Amino acid sequence: MELKDYSYAYQHEASLALNQVNYKVRENAVNFVIGPNGSGKSTLIDALTLNTRLGKAAGRVVGPTNNNYLYITQYLPLLGTVRCSEITRFILGNVFLNSHIDLGFLENRVDERVLSFLKHVWHKKYNDLSGGEEKLLQLYLFLQSQKEFVVLDEPSAYIDRRNVKQLFDLIEERLKQQTFLIVTHDVRDIRLVPDSFVSVLNQGKIVSELRGQDFIDREFSQELPFIYDFSEY
Ligand SMILES: Nc1ncnc2c1ncn2[C@@H]1O[C@H](COP(=O)(O)OP(=O)(O)OP(=O)(O)O)[C@@H](O)[C@H]1O
Ligand SMILES: [Mg+2]
User: Where does the record place the ABC transporter domain (predicted)?
Assistant: First the structure.
C-alpha cells in the first residue's frame, strides 16, 4: 500500500491536511505514524484505505487489495448497556462461525491475555467499563479477525502502559501473517517495537522516516528536535 505525491484538502478548507506525501507500508511489520494533534495522521490512514470523502485529492493511492483490511478508528464505540458477552458473541461469532460462544469455547481459540481480559468483563455492561477497558475490548475482539492488513488509530490512547505492552506483544506475535499500520502520538509505543518502521508527520508532511531502534536512539537528541516538542511534557 502506498501514497505517491499525495495531497489532500478537506472540503471548504484552504490548507492542505496532507502535502505531497510519499508513503509506503512495509509488509509483515509494524509501521508507526507519529506526530502531534492535527498533523494529518488520521487523514493519512483514511487516504491509504480509500476512506477520504468530499475533499480534494491529488496524487496516487495504492489501497488494500480486495478490501481485506481492518481499520479501528481512534474513537470508542457507543454501545450503551449491551453486555460484553453479547458484544463478544456478535463479533467473534462471525470469526468462529458460532453464535453461542462462551468462555469455555474461547479457551485455546484466543490468546491467553485476551481470554483473561474477557473473563474479567464478561458479565459487565459496556457502559460500566472504564475508558481503557472499552478500548481494550474493541481491540482484542476485532484483532481476532486475522485480516492481512490492520490499521489502528491511536490504540494506546486511554490504555495503561502494562496493557499497552500486552497489546504490542500480541501484535508482534502476529507479524508473520499480518501487517500493522499504527498511528500514535506517544513515543513510548515505539520503544516497545524497536523493529518497527517509523514515519514522523508534521503539518501534513512526512519529516522523518527511520527504524524504530534509530528513533529510540535519537529520540532525545537534536537530530529529532521536533519529537521532543510534543512528547516530553
Ligand atoms: N472533517 C474535517 N473537515 C475539515 N478539516 C478537517 C477534518 N478532519 C480533519 N481536519 C483537519 O485536517 C488536519 C489533519 O487532521 P487529522 O485528523 O488527520 O490529524 P491527526 O494527526 O489525526 O490528529 P489527532 O492526533 O488529533 O487525531 C487538521 O488540521 C484538522 O483540523
Ligand atoms: Mg487522528
Answer: 1-228
How many other β-carbons are positioned within 10 Å of the β-carbon of residue 113? 15
With the most atoms of ligand 1 within 8 angstroms of its CB, the residue from 19, 41, 151 to mutate is: 41
**Residue ranges of domains in the chain:** 1-68+148-233, 76-146
Residue range 219-233, pLDDT digits in tens: 777 666 666 666 655
C-beta of residue 14 within 8 angstroms of C-beta of residue 59: no
Residues 96-119 pLDDT 10s: 999 899 999 999 999 999 999 999
Q: 131-167: buried (b, 16+ CB within 10 Å) or exposed (e) per residue?
A: eebbbbbbbbbbbbeebebbbbbbbbbbbeeebbebb
Ligand nearest to the CA of 18: 1
Q: Determine if ligand 1 sits within 6 Å of the CB of residue 42.
A: yes
CB 212 within 8 A of CB 195: yes
Residues surrounding ion ligand 2 at CB below 5 Å: 41-42
Give the HSE-up count for residue 115: Cα atoms under 13 Å, Cβ half-sphere. 12
In tens, the pLDDT along 123-162 reads 999 999 999 999 999 999 999 988 999 999 999 988 999 9
Give CATH for domain 1-68+148-233: 3.40.50.300
